[in-house]
User: Fold Purine nucleoside permease from Podospora pseudocomata.
Amino acid sequence: MRFMPCAFASFLALRGGQLGLAAATPPRNGSIANSPPEPRLDGKITPKVMIVNMAIQFAPEAQVWYDNMPLNSHGNLLAVNITIPGLSPRYPHVHCREDLQVCQVTTCEGEINAASSAMALLLSPKFNLTKTYFLLAGIAGANPKYSTIGGVALARYTVQVALQYEFDAREMPDNFTTGYVAYGTTQPEEYPKILYGTEVFEVSNALRDAAFNYAVRANLSDNEDSKKYRARYKPEGNIFAKASSGPEVVKCDTVTSDVYYSGTLLSEAFERTTGVWTNGTGRYCMTAQEDNAVLGSLVRMAVYGAVDFSRVVVMRTGSNFDRPPPNVTAYEHLLVLKQNGFEVAIQNLYLAGIEIVNGILKDWGAVFDKGIKPCNYIGDVLGSLGGEPDFGPGSETKGVGFRPPGNSTTRAIV
Assistant:
C-alpha cells in the first residue's frame, strides 16, 4: 500500500465517483453496517476468486469494490461476512457475494500485517482454497519510466528490495552508488549470498497474460488534476513518456519495502536491485509494502497443496510517483505537493480488477476450472514448489521442491 498524504485528504472530500463509480462511505474499524448475520456454514466455502486488498485508513481499496459491484450488477460483496481468527482486528472479516464465488479480504498495511492476515485466511477451516484465484489488488507508487498516476500494472516478479544491509548515504564509501548492499556481500549490485527466501517471487506469466487481456478492456478513469501533475514530467523527454501520458494497463514488476521511500536516488538503486536479483529479467515499475508478504504465505501453503500458486495475479495501480519531476525536490514531491493520483488509482483498481474477476468467472468452465499451465518458473528464490528458479543461485532441493512431513525421506516428528 502506498498513498500520498495530501492525495488521501483530497479523496476524503469527494462526494461522488467518476465513470459510474460510487463514492466510498467505508465502515469504521471493519464493522459491517446493516449486514446479515454470519452464515451457518454446512461445508467449506470454495470461492473461484479471492480479492486481496491491503487497505489504508478507512479502507478505500476495499470499499470501491463494496460500493460498485452492486451498482454494476456484479453482486454484493457484503452479502456474506465471515469472521476469521487471526485477521487484522481492524478488518476481521472475509466478505463474499451471495453465491460465494467471489470473496474479499483486507490484510491491513505493511509486511507483518499482510503475512499474518494471509496466513490466517489460508489456515482457516471455513475455506477450501485449492482452486481459488487470488487477485492481489492495491495502490502503489509508480516508476515514471514505465507507468503513471492511475496506471495499472500486472507483475510477474515481486522483489523485497529493502531486505539488505543499509548505510546512511552520508556515511557510505565514496565509490558506492547507494547505501544498500545485499546480505553476505560487500559491494552494491551483487547477488545476495545469504538468502531469507522471500527476496523474489515469480508468478505465472501465462495467467498474467490472460489477466492483462481482460484488464485492457477497462475504460480507465482519469481527471484534470492528475493530468496537471503528469505534465511536470514532460521536460524529461522520452524517458518519462509513460509518466506524462494517460493511464493504461502495462506488464511490469513490483518492489516491496515497509520503508516508504521516495526520490530519484533510492528509486534508481532499487531498479538496479530488481535487475540484479531477477537476473536482468525484472522491470520495476510499482512500489508496494505487502506483495512479498502475501506471496510468501501463499508459497508456504502451496507446498502443502492448500492453494495453487499458479493461480495468483498481482495488480497495482499508481497513486503517486516514486521520484520527483524535474526541478522539484524529493521532499516537496513527497510531502508538500499534491500529486492528485489517489482517486484515479482507487477507481482504476476496481475498473481493471472487475474485468479480471468477471473474465475468470465467465471462462471458468472452458479455461480456469482446470487452470492455466505456467510457461515459466513460479515460486520463490529457494525453489520451494519445485523446478529451477530463473533467478538466483538455483533450487535448494535440486528442482524437487520441499515436501510436507510424511512425504519425504526423513522422518517427521510431530
In short: DSSP finds eleven helices and 15 strands in the chain. The CA atoms of residues 45 and 127 lie 5 Å apart. The chain has one domain: 5-12+47-163+198-380. The longest strand covers residues 133-142.
